[in-house]
């Protein structure tokens, strides 16, 4: 049995074993060589209270570069929490020269904006204007299908569902339900929205429309509730924090170090410690917006506007980062927005407005690289802050109008990871339809808004963990041109790979229960490698 910290003696032995395992890969004249390595982790997650499960293991080389690992993303991207039971397993060769394959999927609708998420291994898309019925991607058929569980009515931002314990928690239409039973329903003429569950509490925004003098209010609530309760939750027992302004909302929730955090669209940063709310930043009238939160090693990352950078938080202190990522060459450096975040094949990615940029961080050398601009036109410029800004300003002047000049800026709205791929959605500012008079946005350019792109690199596998009350055994296997994940002996998923993929594991140092996905929220009972 290895401890949860690095066991150097065993690791050097594993390095020697792996050298003997993968050495046939170097012989070009050998017939169909076989490589094999397996990592086993037995873990007990305890009671499911909505925690982000974190990392199971991570292997790094001498340059501190992650060459293999497994864990669960803790991610909320603008409109929804990504699947917390999506288990990622990645492995990379010692010398990684692979270029990503990026393709555009068929349109899900004529919406010029799309937000995506994932649950149960499926990617979902939601429009903003034309088609507000959620659709799921069918990779076998190569098309979007109306999601049957949401086919009866449109979804609002913040609506959705999550697996919790042995059941399903759903939140939409001002109701929270667990396996079909009502947990909480908003009082008449009031609203409950942007629900998040963690620390054994339901978190949500609670609104009563109208001015304060007429009884209107907005408050952020933490309401104790667990799936074992037989009675509905009591709204009067919510631990509430009134917002500074009426009808504030949020675009992201996150958790770290025993605290749950949210940021309102007016820039108030709040943290709940299980008993009370703490204000980490008060609304001050200056723009401060966070569109995504992601657990990354020992920090919670914030995708921030107007810096366009990814900031950090430890649950108590906010740490701004400059040029993280930097402005795209040739583009203006102001009014930038980091909107989306994700972990894929061992790397951090972020999508940045207003030029539809997708950036990747190399943690080993601390450098960001531009993976791709997701739009081909208009040409990048630093003369204005946003695409088509000059054209809209000129149109306003000619027509005595006041149309918003950055409405056709370009967003990488959200990112989801499923199977072997990463999916990225695009949009204009608010999903607005093109005005007929905007002849400077031609059909080919318009067609690039509202697309979902799929990016694939070798050596990544996402699959769905099965919830087990008690110890469960995970096996991460690279063998015979396949990498696969098993849970309690049953395969969760597999993908084909190249033979040299396990080469990066030579002499790797492994850490158990920590890494890219943050600290493990559970107890490792046994871990081994062979």
3D structure, described in words:
This protein has 530 residues and is mainly beta. The protein has a domain at 8-94 and 463-529: Jelly Rolls, CATH 2.60.120. Helices cover 6% and strands 44% of the residues. The protein is built from 3 helices and 40 strands. It has a 6-stranded antiparallel sheet, with no helix packed on it. Strands 38-37-36-1-40 form a 5-stranded antiparallel sheet. A hairpin with a 2-residue loop joins β12 and β13. The longest helix has 15 residues, at 8-22. The chain is globular, with a radius of gyration of 24 Å. Residues 1-34 have low confidence and may be disordered.
- Determine the CATH topology of the domain at 8-94 and 463-529: Jelly Rolls
CATH first level of the domain at 8-94 and 463-529: which class? Mainly Beta
Structural class: mainly beta
Average pLDDT over all residues: 91
Q: What oligomeric assembly is this protein in?
A: single chain
N-end to C-end Cα span: 12 Å
Sequence stretches where pLDDT stays below 50 over 5 or more residues = 1-34
Shape: globular
Give the C-alpha Rg.
Answer: 24 Å
Number of helices: 3
Question: How would the blueprint of this fold be written?
Answer:
Layout: H1 8-22, E1 36-44, E2 54-60, E3 66-72, E4 75-77, E5 80-81, E6 86-91, E7 101-104, E8 114-119, E9 122-127, E10 135-138, E11 143-146, E12 160-164, E13 167-172, E14 175-178, E15 181-185, E16 191-198, E17 201-208, E18 217-224, E19 239-242, E20 250-256, E21 259-264, E22 269-272, E23 277-281, E24 289-296, E25 299-305, E26 310-313, E27 318-319, E28 337-344, E29 347-353, E30 357-362, E31 367-373, H2 389-399, E32 411-418, E33 421-427, H3 443-446, E34 452-456, E35 460-464, E36 472-479, E37 482-487, E38 490-496, E39 509-512, E40 523-529
Antiparallel strand pairs: 1-36, 1-40, 2-3, 2-39, 3-6, 4-5, 4-24, 6-35, 7-34, 8-9, 9-10, 10-11, 12-13, 13-14, 14-15, 16-17, 17-18, 18-19, 20-21, 21-22, 22-23, 24-25, 25-26, 26-27, 28-29, 29-30, 30-31, 32-33, 33-34, 36-37, 37-38
């Amino acid at each position: 049995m290895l401890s949860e910290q690095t066991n150097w003696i065993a690791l050097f032995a594993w390095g020697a074993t792996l050298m003997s395992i993968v050495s046939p890969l170097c012989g070009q004249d050998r017939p169909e060589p076989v490589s094999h390595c397996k990592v086993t982790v037995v873990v007990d997650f305890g009671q499911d209270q909505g925690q982000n499960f974190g990392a199971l293991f991570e292997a790094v080389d001498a340059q501190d570069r992650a060459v293999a690992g497994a864990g669960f993303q803790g991610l909320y991207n603008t409109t929804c929490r990504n699947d917390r039971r999506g288990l990622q397993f990645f492995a990379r060769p010692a010398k990684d020269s692979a270029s990503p394959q990026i393709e555009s999927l068929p349109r899900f609708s004529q919406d010029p904006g799309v937000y995506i998420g994932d649950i149960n291994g499926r990617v979902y898309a939601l429009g903003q204007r034309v088609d507000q019925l959620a659709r799921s991607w069918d990779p076998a058929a190569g098309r979007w299908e109306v999601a049957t569980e949401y086919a009866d009515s449109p979804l609002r931002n913040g609506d959705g569902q999550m697996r919790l314990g042995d059941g399903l928690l759903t939140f939409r239409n001002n109701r929270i339900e667990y396996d079909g039973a009502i947990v909480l329903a908003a009082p008449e003429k009031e609203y409950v929205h942007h629900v998040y569950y963690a620390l054994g509490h339901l978190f949500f925004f609670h609104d009563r429309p109208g001015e304060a003098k007429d009884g209107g209010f907005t408050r952020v609530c933490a309401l104790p509730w667990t799936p074992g309760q037989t009675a509905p939750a009591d709204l009067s027992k919510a631990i509430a924090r009134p917002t500074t302004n009426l009808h504030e909302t949020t675009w992201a929730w996150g958790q770290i170090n025993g605290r749950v955090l949210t940021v309102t669209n007016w820039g108030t940063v709040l943290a709940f410690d299980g008993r009370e709310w703490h204000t980490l930043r008060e609304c001050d009238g200056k723009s401060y917006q966070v569109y995504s939160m992601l657990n990354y090693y020992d920090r919670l990352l914030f995708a921030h506007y107007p810096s366009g950078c990814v900031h950090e938080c430890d649950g108590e202190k906010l740490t701004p980062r400059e040029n993280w990522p930097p402005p795209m060459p040739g583009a203006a450096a102001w009014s930038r927005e980091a909107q989306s975040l994700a972990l894929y094949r061992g790397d951090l990615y972020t999508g940045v407005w207003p030029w539809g940029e997708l950036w990747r961080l190399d943690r080993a050398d601390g450098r960001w690289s531009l993976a791709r601009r997701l739009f081909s036109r208009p040409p990048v410029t630093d003369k204005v802050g946003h695409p088509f800004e000059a054209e809209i300003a000129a149109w306003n002047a000619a027509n005595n109008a006041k149309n918003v000049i950055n409405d056709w800026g370009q967003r990488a709205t959200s990112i989801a990871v499923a199977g072997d791929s990463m999916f990225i959605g695009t949009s204009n500012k608010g999903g607005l339809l093109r005005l007929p008079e905007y002849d400077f946005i031609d059909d080919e350019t318009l067609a690039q808004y509202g697309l979902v792109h799929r990016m694939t690199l070798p050596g990544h596998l996402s699959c769905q963990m099965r919830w087990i009350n008690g110890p469960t055994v995970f096996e991460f296997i690279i063998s015979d041109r396949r990498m696969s994940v098993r849970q309690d002996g049953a395969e969760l998923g597999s993908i084909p790979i190249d033979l040299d993929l396990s080469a990066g594991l030579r002499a790797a140092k492994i850490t158990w229960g920590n890494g890219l996905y943050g600290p493990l929220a559970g107890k490792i009972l046994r871990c081994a490698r062979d």
